[in-house]
Design goal:
Distance between the termini: 71 Å
Structural class: alpha/beta
CATH superfamily of one domain: Histidine kinase-like ATPase, C-terminal domain
Strand content: 5-15%
Order of helices and strands: HHHHEHEHHEHEEHEEHEEEHEHEHHEHEH
Bound molecules: adenosine-5'-diphosphate
CATH architecture of one domain: 2-Layer Sandwich
CATH topology of one domain: Heat Shock Protein 90
Largest sheet: 7 strands, mixed
Shape: rod-shaped
Length: 711
Amino acid sequence: MKFKQRSFIIISAIILLFIALLLRNSYLQRTEQGALVTSIHGMDRNSRKIAVLDSITLCLQAAENDFRLYTTAWDTLYFKKYAREVRLAAHLLEDLYRNEEQSLSGEIKAGLAHKKGQLKLYSQIKRLTDSLTNVNTEVELMKITPNVPEFKSYPNKVLKKTVKVEEVRKEPEVKKERFFKRLKNAIVNKEQAKDSVKTVHTEVTYEQRGTDVSSSAQQEQEKIRAFYAKLFDDLKKNKKQLTNKEQAVLNLNEGIFKNIQQLFLEFRTRERAAADQEQEAIKNNAEHSLENIDKSRQVNFSLSILAYIAIILLLLQLYRSYNKTLKANLQVKEQVISKSRFFTSISHEMRTPLNAIIGVSEQLKSTPLNDDQRAMSKLLDNSSSMLLSAVNEVLDFSRLETGKLSLAKTPFKYKRVLRELRDTAKVLADQKKLTLELLDEDAPDLLLYGDPYRLKQIVMNLIANAIKFTDKGKVSVAVNVKRNDHEQAILLISVTDTGIGIAAENLPTIFNEFSQVINSKRIDWQKGSGLGLPISKKLVELHKGNIHVESTLNKGTAFHIELPYAIAVKDTEDTVNEQTPLLSSDRFKEIHLLVVDDSDMNLLVIKMIFKKLGISYDTASDGHEALEMLKGRAYDMVLTDIQMPVMDGLELTKQIRRMDDLKKANMPVIAITGQISSESHAIYMSSGLNDYIVKPFSESDLMEKILDYTG
Ligand code: ADP
C-alpha cells in the first residue's frame, strides 16, 4: 500500500514537472516570438527609411536635371518642376526626421544630429534657389525700353537713352537653425534671411543732333539707322551684362546644388550604413530568437515524446486496472450468485427439518399434554418459527440481491392486511407491556392491486424492530393514502416508537446488510440477523417506493414508507386471503392419496396429519416407485417432493401426464417444495404440476390444497 502511495506521488510529481516545463517553454516561445515580431517591424521600418532616402535622392536628381534644362532652355516650366521637386524632397526629409525622432534610439539620433551640420549648405542652396526664382521672374519681366526719338523735320538736339540694369548681391551668412527645420523652411521658402539681394537701377544717356533740313531727312535716316544700331549694340551689351550676372548666379546655384547633392549622397550613404547596421542587429536578434524558439521546440519535442510514452504506459496501466476491475466485477457477480446458491440450498436444507419440527410440534399440541410438555411444545413452536423467519430472511435477501424476487399482483384490501398484522404484532407488544396502535381511520378503504405478502413483510419488519427497541411507551402505525388519480394511490405508512432511538452517526448505515447498532447496555440488538431493514428497503425499492428514517437518541424513531399501488376494480376482488371455512373432516375420509418423499421426517409429519384427518394414503420414496404404484392402483391425488433420488418430482409429474389412462394422466399432482422463486414456479408449472406447497407448511395449508384439488 505504501509502495503504491509512493509511486502515485512520484507519478504526480513527474506530471507536475512536465506541466511546469511545458508552461515555461510556452512562455519562452511567446517572448521570443514577440522579439521576432519587433525585429520584423524594425526591418520594415528600416527598409521604409531607405526607400524614403532613395525617393529624396531621385527627387534631387530630377530637380538637378530640371534646373539644367531651365538654365539651357530658359523655360519657366522647368523651373516650376525644379521647385516642386525640391519642395517634395524637403517634405520627405521632414517626415523622415519626425519619424526618426519618434522611433530611433538615442545613438542613431545623435548620428542624425551630426548629419544636420553637413546639410547646412543644403538650406543655403535652397535660399539661392529662391533667389533664382526671383531672378527668373525679373528676367521674364525685364524689357529693354529705349526712348524712341521723335522723328520730325526738326530734329531734336538731344537724344535721351535709358537702360534698366539689375544687380544681384550676396548677403552675409546668418546664424543657422536646427538642420531639418531649416532645411524644411528653406525648401518650402518660409520666412528666411535672404542670402542674396537684388537691386535694379536705370542708366540714362543723351546725344547731340544736327540741324540741316535738306540733309535732315538724310540725317534723320542716319539717325534712325544709328539709333537702331546703337539700340542693337545696347541690347547686345545689356543682354551680355545680364547673362553674365545671371550666369554667375546660376553657376553659383549649380555649384552649391551639386555640393548639396554630394553632401546628401554622403548623408544617404551614412544613413544606409546605419540602416544596414541596424538591419544586421535586427537580423542577429531575429536569429537569436529563432535559435531560442528552436531550442524550446526541441525541448517541447522531447517532452512530447516523454509525454506520449507516459500516456502509453498509463494507458497500459489503465487497461490492466480495467481488466482487473472487470475480473473483480465478474468475481463479485459470481460470488453473489454462489452466495445466493448457498443461501438457497442451505435454506432448503434447513426447511426440510424445520418442516418436520413445526409439523411435529403442531401435531404434539393436538395431543393430550401435561403442563411441562405443553411448555416444551410452546418452546419448540417459538424456536422453530424464529428459525423459520431467519431462514426466510436469508432466502429473501439473497433472492432480492440477485434480482430473482418478483412481486405478486393480486387485488387486496390493505386495511385488512394491516389489521391482521396489528393483531399478530399485538401479542409481541403485550409481552413488553407496550401499546400498539393502528391509526387508519382517515385513510380510505381501497382495494389495491399488488403483493399483500410483501406489504406485510415490510411493515412487520418495522413493527418488530419498534417493539424490540422500545421498553416503555407505544408503537404507532399511522396509515394514509395519497391519490394521484382514479387509478393510482400511494400508501403512506409511518411506524413510530418511543424507544431508544438511533444516533445520527448510525442512521446512514442501518439499511446496510448485516448492520446492527452495537449497544453495550442491551442484548436485544443481537436478536436479529441484521437483514430486516435491508430487506424492507429492497422490497420498497422493488415497489418503486421509498423509505426514510427520523430518529432522536433516547426519544424514539419513526420510519416512513411510501408505496405506490394501482387501484383495483371492485368486482375483481380476490377472495384468496379471505378466511376459508374449515370443511368437515368427513370429506377427507373419501380421499385416497399417494405421498412421494424420500425424507422420513417429512413423511412422518404428513402421516401424522393424514392420520388425524382420516385420509388414507400410500407412500413411495422416489418417482420410479410411485409410477409403479400408480399403474397398479387409482389415487385421487399425488403429493410429491421435488428433490428425490432415481426420479425427481418433476419427472414423475411428466410421466404421469404421459400415462395412457386419461383419468390417471389428468389426476391432480401437488408438489411439496423448499424452493420458492419465480423461476422455480415457472419450471413447476411447465412440468405439469397443478400446484405446490412451500415447506414448512402448516396442517391447514395442506388441508386447503387437498380440498382445492379433490373437491
Ligand atoms: P435486526 O435484525 O438487527 O433488527 P435490522 O436490519 O432490522 O436488523 O435493523 C438494523 C439495526 O437498526 C438494528 O440492529 C438496530 O440497531 C437499528 N434499529 C432498527 N429499527 C430500530 C428502532 N425502531 N429503534 C432503534 N433502533 C433500530
